[in-house]
Amino acid sequence: MAKKFYAVRVGRDGPGIYDAWDQCRTQVHGVAGAVYKSFPTREEAESFLSGGEAEADTAQPDPEGAIAYVDGSYDSATGDFSCGAVLFLNGGEITFSERFHDPELSSMHNVAGEIMGALTVIRYCLEQGVPALTIYHDYEGVGRWADGGWKANKPGTQSYAAECRAARRSMKLRFVKVKGHSGDKYNDTADALARKALGL
After folding, report:
1. Do 27 and 115 fall into the same domain?
2. Average predicted confidence (pLDDT) for the chain
3. Where are the beta strands (DSSP E) in 101-162?
4. Domain-embedded: residue 56
5. Residues in CB range of 180: below 8 A, 6 or more apart
6. Which of 22, 24, 27, 34 is the right S-S partner for 59, CB 3.0 to 4.6 Å?
7. Who has greater pLDDT, 35 or 89?
8. Does the residue 22 lie in any domain?
9. Are residues 28 and 90 in the same domain?
């Protein structure tokens, strides 16, 4: 089989050249707006990264279902929290921005918003009959509680973990942690939507 070089112009860790598809896929899979292309020589791949005119491939949402970016925020003045989310489904983009007032959950501050963001997109996708959902989040607990990696000690996290387990009976559910405030376009968008819901 002829060797290929995979040039990633826009990906999870920025521009780069990879000599295996699995390495390239890690950089582009589930990354909205990712731009990449394979080449037979390293020179062509380098030319593409430096602005060459070769037509790029654009990463699309998981063909099996949807991808979403979620985030949360908290207003210490009111005790309210909020969630923001960007959902990519069937070639479209749907945004969510919602404020909550729940004294019990608000003790978790912005983490309450993070898990409500995940639940908001999970519930929406279940209603739409979506078979698979990948959720990108910047707070580790969003995925850890859902996957059982962290013990859910508070009523809010216990309820969240239980709802995720129930959702998995109807859909494939995957969680991917991203670094917060690192220039990830859609993570930043989810953060802005959460803050907007609180008027921050």
Report:
1. no
2. 84
3. 132-137
4. no
5. 71, 138, 139, 187, 191
6. 34
7. 89
8. yes
9. no
Considering only residues 35 and 13, tell me which one the structure prediction assigns the higher pLDDT. Answer: 13
> How many CA atoms, within 13 angstroms, populate the side-chain half-sphere of residue 164?
26
CA distance 190 to 198: 13
**What are the backbone angles phi and psi of residue 55, rounded to the nearest 5°?**
-70, 130
3-state secondary structure (DSSP) of residue 53: coil
Closest CA to 178 of 10, 18, 12: 12
Write out the two tokens for 45. Answer: 């791949």
Sequence letter at residue 46: E
Tens digit of each residue's pLDDT (9 = 90 or more) over 37-78: 788 888 888 887 776 544 444 334 455 688 899 999 999 999
DSSP 94-109: EEEEEEE--HHHHTTT
Q: What is the CATH number of the domain that holds 24?
A: 3.40.970.10
- Rounded alpha-carbon distances, angstroms, from residue 43 to 16, 103, 134, 168: 13, 59, 35, 45
Residue 35 lies in a domain: yes
162: tokens are 């239980």
Q: What are 138-189's pLDDT values in tens digits?
A: 888 999 999 888 998 999 999 999 999 999 999 999 888 877 666 677 888 9
Q: pTM score, two decimals?
A: 0.69
For residue 58, the number of C-alpha atoms closer than 13 Å in the C-beta half-sphere is 6
Domain encompassing residue 73? 64-196
3-class SS of residue 186: helix
Q: Are residues 154 and 186 in the same domain?
A: yes
Task: Return the residue matching tokens 């923001």.
Answer: 84
